Amino acid sequence: MKLWWRPNETRGIVWLDQEVKSEAGDETLLPTLRISSDVSKFKVKNPGGELGVRISRIVSEIVRLGMENVRWFVMGDDDTFFLTENLVKVLQKYDHNQFYYNPSF
């Protein structure tokens, strides 16, 4: 994340399953870290279905934060690398007042 995260330019949250230790001083160089709510109480019949439940919970938790002046929410997983300039360029083509989901951006 340190390669693409831009403190004071980008905003974001990294959602984790459990707390992790970070090096002293990293707090200002990285996005906010949050622990997503426990989804173990949800009974999932499909193998791997827990991931879908976790993602939907994270989306609802983001909405409840009530963040202001946000045009886009972009989600990635642990092996996602964002090229911020490219991402901004692609998103400028879309109306931020509409809902979109495109896993092949």
Automatic annotation (TrEMBL):
Translocase in keyword set: no
Domain Fringe-like glycosyltransferase: 68-101
Entries under InterPro entries matching the protein: Fringe-like_glycosylTrfase (IPR003378)
Membrane topology: Single-pass membrane protein; Single-pass type II membrane protein
Superkingdom of source: Eukaryota
Cellular location(s): Endomembrane system; Membrane
Keyword match Transferase: yes
One GO MF term attached to the UniProt entry: glycosyltransferase activity
Protein keywords: Glycosyltransferase, Membrane, Signal-anchor, Transferase, Transmembrane, Transmembrane helix
Transmembrane segments: none
A GO-annotated cellular component: endomembrane system
PANTHER family to which the protein is assigned, alphabetical: FRINGE-RELATED
Protein name: Fringe-like glycosyltransferase domain-containing protein
Lineage of the species this protein comes from: Eukaryota, Viridiplantae, Streptophyta, Embryophyta, Tracheophyta
